[in-house]
Amino acid sequence: MAKKPKKQQGGTPATVALTAAGTAFTVHAYEHDPASPSYGDEAAQALGVSPERVFKTLVADVDGELTVAVVPVAGQLDLKALATAVGGKRATMADPAAAERTTGYVRGGISPLGQRRRLRTVLDASASGHPTICISAGRRGLEVELAPSDLATLTDAVLAPIGRMV
After folding, report:
1. For the sheet containing 26-29, what is the strand order?
2. What pLDDT, in 10s, does the model give residues 114-147?
């Protein structure tokens, strides 16, 4: 009987993927409050990081294909801009159950890295204005900080202005 590979202690699929790729990153943990109305705002406040540097991972349906959008928590996803960025016509937010099933993560902890099924990814162009950004590490209360260029490379992301400040 073949031995199962050892799981990285305390790792998530996202941190395992980062480690395997040899990418520099820092893990930031905080106490998640289940009553918090916004996972992203909670992360920014808990980490003491500007909301423009903390990015949320959203899953949308673009012409029938699930697509990941990574945008600052300080703003909103522009669905029309997302569709345009991937050559689509129409985008809507994906069904949360479909997003969880496809990515292997729970809502509020979806990471653009280490997904069960790799989805097409678009990273908001504002990310390139920061030396590092924070994204979900694949669990509520856990973020990873990394260079936006590394995130774009690891996810084969398209950089496009898909975020809208509110």
Report:
1. 26-29, 142-146, 133-139
2. 999 999 999 999 999 999 999 999 998 999 999 9
